[in-house]
Design brief:
Protein name: Peptidase M43 pregnancy-associated plasma-A domain-containing protein
Order of helices and strands: HH
Strand content: under 5%
Shape: globular
Organism: Zooxanthella nutricula
Number of strands: 0
CATH architecture: 3-Layer(aba) Sandwich
Number of domains: 1
Family: Belongs to the peptidase M43B family.
Structural class: mainly alpha
Number of helices: 2
CATH superfamily: Collagenase (Catalytic Domain)
GO molecular function: metallopeptidase activity
Pfam families: Peptidase_M43
Length: 112
Amino acid sequence: RRLSVWMRADILDGGRDSPKTLPHELGHALGLKHTWGHTSEGHCTSGNSDHVADTPQNMRASGSACDDVADTCPGFGVRMRGDDAHANVMGYCRHKRDFTYGQMVRMMETTV
């Protein structure tokens, strides 16, 4: 089984997000979704899920919306509640640096 990740060279040009783009795209290649799942609407639905139990359910955020610590889907459903994962590599916030334990397990399971 072969794993490939393709990126345009200009994505890694040294801009603000360039060091974070490769880990984000590798996360996709290893089975991870965005922290908000497949939805891009501005409201909470059952689709606001990356299907990893320890990632708090959240709405899509980027730019200045990432500066606020918030729980954009408070009390929604039975998934883990808590502040949005703004530092998560699979989000669109500029302070990306973390994977959850569950995300790491998902990536390892994908490679088996």
